Queue: 2 jobs
Job 1
Amino acid sequence: MTLYLGIDFGTSGARAVVIDDEARILSQMRHPWANVTDWVICWKEALWSLLEGISLELRREIGAIAINGTSSTILLTDAAGQPVDAPLLYNDQRGSRFIKDLSRIAPPNHTVLSATSSLAKLLWMQQLPTFSQARYLLHQADWLAFLLHGKLGISDYHNALKLGYDVEKLQYPEWLEKLHIPILLPHVLAPGTPIGELSPEIVAKFGFRDDCLVCAGTTDSIAAFLASGAKLPGEAVTSLGSTLVLKLLSRTRVEDARYGIYSHRLGDLWLTGGASNTGGAVLKKFFTDEELLSLSREIDVSKPSELDYYPLLKEGDRFPINDPHLPPKLEPRPEHPRDFLHGLLESMARIEARGYQLLQHLGADQLTYVYTAGGGAANYNWTAMRNKYLKVPVVSSENTEAAFGTALLAMQELGA
Ligand code: ADP
């Protein structure tokens, strides 16, 4: 039997999942982040501890490994793969002052024209004294995979999107050359492509098979989408976490930077989507998790709420309404907290439906089925309200773990 290992480096910690060739989970490990001062050391320790957490018996059966990282978390390494400075994490905005320069050469509304894009971060890194020692730019997932297979300068087209890589033509665009970046940008492969076998040192250290392959990885949010089971055009995943994130599989590529909409390539399809600032964080401001559970149960979903809110913590949203000054709308506030919650949940359901309408309006395939992930997925009455607005089946994702999605990616080539 051949097993597959998916490793997720996410925002709150690292996880690993081992699956068999029927995608059954055999083993799971976690390594949460705690008081991190040095991310490079932390990532390395997490990787080793996850591998050590897998029983020796399973390790000997693993045929392929893939790793996902957080999108646009990048680092510079020397010619030997040693990081020359601290990584810049996914949410680091220090590159924002280079957007103006970038906007002169990148096409209008390009994904690199964002404060957290990998390319904006790279321009910021170019002014570091340590930049002269840098040879490679790598994403978090690229570098972690390098620790396993020993090959430098390789990435995948999910991680490379925000570096400016053209995922349609599968090449770096000409305009990028105008930046004269004096280090090597990664060679980009399709996610899941086998890169090479585990290095002999790793095989010896952990007792893996010497023919175990390390595959090109992906980002944490795409991995979570892969975990849901959505596969066909029109199928979508809504994430009801702190914010509201929509992802819709489509045969056409949809991009509109005004709304923060862009598409990732997923084989022959496109994964398009957008994120709204509304979501669970607003619910959390007014209710405890216990109140959310009990009050939600009290809601009579057969009666529509008359309340029309735009729930936000502070002013501004981008998708499905692009207005940095959009005010939170949380009035009028009914006396009973149950009715207030009803209004909030139904308003968010309307925003979700409006988001999918916008994606379809811009050319994405018609919505057929919605999987749900995140803390709100278990709210049965909310699901019923969403079903009413979305007018398609709405279900809870069976699995939402990025590590599971990445294990499926590792299986894709060998298991197929
Ligand atoms: P994230 O990873 O984005 O922080 P999670 O997926 O862990 O978020 O979900 C947490 C969110 O889910 C919280 O903001 C909370 O308000 C919301 N939540 C928790 N329980 C419920 C519930 N029963 N109904 C609706 N929302 C809920």
Note: Residues 241-242, 280-281, 283-284, 289, 292-293, 296, 374-376, 378-379, 382 surround adenosine-5'-diphosphate (CB under 6 Å).
Job 2
Amino acid sequence: MKHLVTIQDLSIHEIDDILKEAQKLALTSTPRESENILIANLFLEPSTRTRFSFEAAERNLGFHVLNVDEASSSMTKGETLYDTIRTLEEIGAEAVVIRHHQDRYFDELLGKISIPIINAGDGCGNHPTQSLLDMMTIQQEFIVTQGLNVVVAGDIRHSRVAASNAELLEKMGANVYYSGPREWIPEHCKKRYLTMDEACSTADVMMMLRIQHERHVDGMNMSKEEYHRRFGLTLDRECRMKRHSIIMHPAPVNRGVELADELVECSRSRIFKQMKNGVFVRMAVLNWALDRIKEESTYGIAA
Ligand code: CP
């Protein structure tokens, strides 16, 4: 069974195919041919971009969409995640898109669920479709394998986007650096640490992250203003970036904290482009997952 729960589920060949397909869909948005496919979306943590771009992707492909609302589902009566997904499978969903607050929620499902699970974000763990849409956005401007310097800056420790992006960027040949408060830089990232001033002169791509307050055990020990001054992309730092460098952010953005308000839609910013690319990447991922099921049933590969 081909799930997409982490970037490790994809070979370089499959990543290339998905990104090429997404680029093609950006030009055509072709629906699949008259297939009566039902996709379930199960978002157990708030989301704007991922949730609605998956739904837009599903509708663009001509699929029927089942949005499971946690508050009115039997999860409120204690039904397990496994039983909920088995139910969705039995009532006809051919894939399930899941966002969950718990790291690696999918471990208890793999090997037991016979429809593809597409991970729309797990706790501090993974966000593979965000990484693919970020890669699509980068590839629209740069050749990643030619020594591209990407700085991921901010709350690295609590960010699933940082983890998945670093994995994908390194797999594709980019140089990944980290910046932000040292207490939020995991041990294995410390040897690639840059101050924000160093980051500005190094980055071809400056990938800013929100402070993930909802995943912090202790509160933040500095004001938003101090954070912006010490670790944010300020107007002054932006002036010192290389001429061709771009700014990215998975959003939502806390304007004026990690990124100056004026930079959110400046000429270097690709933040809204990332969101647009998200629809095409998610269309390509859904096609990839459904095609793998077809191959399995055609060639009899065991799930
Ligand atoms: N980038 C991202 O995952 O945004 P949402 O939380 O709004 O889906």
Note: The pocket of phosphoric acid mono(formamide)ester is lined by residues 47-51, 121, 130, 250-252 (CB under 6 Å).
